[in-house]
Amino acid sequence: MAKTDYILQSIVSGKTFEDTGWLLEAPGEDKPGLVRAIYKNKQLAVKDDSFGFYKFADWLPVDEILEGSSAPVTYKSEGLAHALRLTKLYITFSGYWPEKGAKMRTCSFKETEAFSVCSRLGRDNKKVLVVASAGNTARAFAKICSDNEIPLLLCVPEDNLDALWFDSPIKSNVKLIASRSGGDYFDAIHLSNLACKIEGFLPEGGAKNVARRDGMGTTVLSAATTIGRIPDYYFQAVGSGTGAIAAWEANLRLIEDGRFGAHKMKLMVSQNAPFVPMYNAWKAKSREMLSFDENEARHQVEIIVAKVLSNRKPPYPIAGGLFDALTDAGGDVLTATNEEARIAGEFFEKTEGNDLHPAAAIAVASLISSVKNHNIDKDAVIMLNITGGGEERFKKDNQLFYLKPDLVFNINPEFDEVKLRIEGLFQKG
Questions:
Q1: Minimal CA–CA distance to 135: which of 339, 391, 366?
Q2: Predicted confidence (pLDDT) per residue in 138-170, tens digit
């Protein structure tokens, strides 16, 4: 596969520039803002299923195909749609569901991020990629980097290590460090930021990485190319909101394509109560995140069932971030409790036939409440982004191997300690 032809554009200034490497920000600009990929191919030519995730390569900033990818799968719902009396409910499923053609072996749409980011990295890279994660992202990056021999340092909260299961042992090019029990995703991000100050270590970039966002945007490309049009509503649970930003950007590209409609789908994004910082900011009509007590936030994160939805500093206020996406496209930030997620997950399994990750159950719960509260048109084209599922079945069908931390750090460690221990870790191989 030839390298995708694209340039980058600053959301702040509109200036365009070449992707000279691992650019995460617009050169020479002071105001924080995302950069966006502008692809030469304005119309999307979808490749056949043998390309896996790379069937959408026209709109991915990549130059090689990595082994083992699977694309999101979209199908028209019957069971859940009938139960909710929705006439045009489409489910975009990322996870493990072989009968539907979904074969993501980490059972999460975080594979779309990892395959795209690692393909952008390129084979000539000699640096260690650093990724912070609350769980699912780490599993995806660990699997893909292990399979493709890409050096990786993962930073994960110790309390979330049970998410790091695999169907084969992870190779030694992948190292795992953890923030001690009691910490959360933000503590893992802090640890990764310290690691990125060490020479030879490269920040993955999170929402600032165009490859991450455009990889996640393939869920919308799957939906639109299956349905034949841009959906009217988009439902997804969010921790950072990066998936919803990606959905908005994919929507804009589809409008420019010209074959899928000229409208923007309403972004119906949801958080797991009681940890709802973006909900609070949006309801206050505030671009900036509202202040909150860190200890209270950590306590809330301990409570929620969807641990992956626990980002305390999401890309909500940044130019091109979730606030801008919601303001431009319309929609709302919703909430669902653990109990509502449990009921929704059981309801989905009963009506559709597969188990869900807790975050996906939060999205289903929000769809159910929106229908009950008459907040959406029952004849509208609705995309339900199921960001993870099939895990219970996958675990039953496969022997599991767990990745254990090579190092565990206290909360807020000193840089010199982090540098010394991590350098020693990689010197040992």
A1: 391
A2: 999 999 999 999 999 999 999 989 999 999 999
